[in-house]
Design a protein that fits this description.
The strands form 2 sheets. The protein has an 8-stranded mixed β-sheet with strand order 5-2-1-6-7-8-11-12, with helices on both faces. By secondary structure, the chain is α/β, with parallel strands linked by helices. The chain has 11 helices and 12 strands.
């Protein structure tokens, strides 16, 4: 299977390194020229608890440079604000029967991709893998967990199962499942409980478990998310959301959330696709979300204070 990853940051880089190490035909596209040049000349280095994994996937800064590749699978790992543009650019590289997979944070990414390709060609899901972009060409694997993928519409099919098998074979345990919206909302609730708080407090994920105050803040933010999910007729893939979020934080204890990484690097966050999206859904459904509204405003204020343009 010919695979192209659009967005080779922490998570995209992790997946690229694992897939390349497993011998898969994988290419990456990223707008950070220094990162791409380092991968091309020196390779992509993945730091793990067992040592370094060095690979050298094809790397370009423009999708157009892969125009003749006819990818079987395009995996989108860009920030939510760039999803629509990534989907449009993927039109030039996706093969006639290829699919596009999004494992991005937040709500609405799969739907934006479906506007370009149609829902039948979109796979969506979640991953509990954790990673940090250390510098050009270097990724640190910060946490392990299952990846779940499924079709945006309809039950899983052979393509979906094959994609899950390829990821699993590369050391990214993956499961093909039918309940995609449940998976996406399940990941959203986890991100609601972790990302904004870690970004505001400069905490690693695990530090949220260290203090009664942060555990209470997680509980309050997650409780609102559960109420909005229920109002949307979404059944979450776990029974106790607060326990699940704190367990994920513990399992990825040394990891810096993607939102914290964005703040530390002076980049716009995905707050509008996570806590902000939850607030918008709450307004639409008549469910109050004051804690998440506050977290959203605090992150936006922090972005402006740092001169970050969203």
């Amino acid at each position: 299977m010919k695979i192209v990853i659009i967005g080779a940051g922490a998570m995209g880089g992790l997946f690229a390194a694992r897939l390349a190490a497993a011998g898969e035909d994988v290419s990456v596209v990223d707008v950070w020229a220094e990162h791409v040049e380092t991968i091309r000349t020196q390779g992509l280095i993945l730091e793990t608890g067992e040592g370094e994994v060095r690979t050298k996937p094809a790397a370009v800064t423009r999708v157009e440079d892969l125009a003749a590749c006819a990818a079987d699978l395009v995996i989108v790992f860009v920030k939510s604000g760039m999803t629509a543009a990534a989907a449009r650019s993927a039109q030039t590289i996706l093969g006639p029967v290829g699919r596009v997979l999004t494992l991005q944070n937040g709500l609405g990414n799969a739907e934006m991709i479906a506007e370009v390709f149609g829902a039948d060609r979109v796979l969506a899901g979640t991953t509990a893998q954790g990673a940090t972009l250390i510098g050009p060409g270097r990724i640190r694997h910060g946490g392990r967990g299952d990846t779940h993928i499924g079709r945006l519409t309809g039950p899983v099919d052979d393509f979906c199962r094959e994609a899950a098998m390829i990821l699993s074979r590369a050391g990214i345990p993956a499961i093909a499942e039918d309940a995609v919206q449940s998976l996406i909302w399940g990941k959203l609730v986890i991100n609601v409980g972790i990302n904004a708080l870690t970004a505001l407090l400069r905490f690693t994920n695990g530090q949220l478990n260290d203090h009664a105050e942060t555990r209470e803040l997680v509980k309050l933010a997650v409780a609102e998310a559960v109420q909005v999910a229920a109002a949307s007729d979404v059944r979450l893939p776990y029974d106790n959301a607060v326990e699940k979020v704190l367990a994920v934080a513990a399992a990825t204890a040394t990891n810096r959330s993607s939102m914290l990484q964005d703040i530390l690097r002076g980049r716009a966050t995905e707050i509008d696709a996570i806590n902000g999206a939850l607030v918008r859904e709450g307004v639409r459904l008549g469910v109050p979300t004051p804690v998440n509204a506050t977290l959203t405003l605090l992150i936006k204020a922090l972005e402006k204070q740092q001169g970050i343009c969203g």
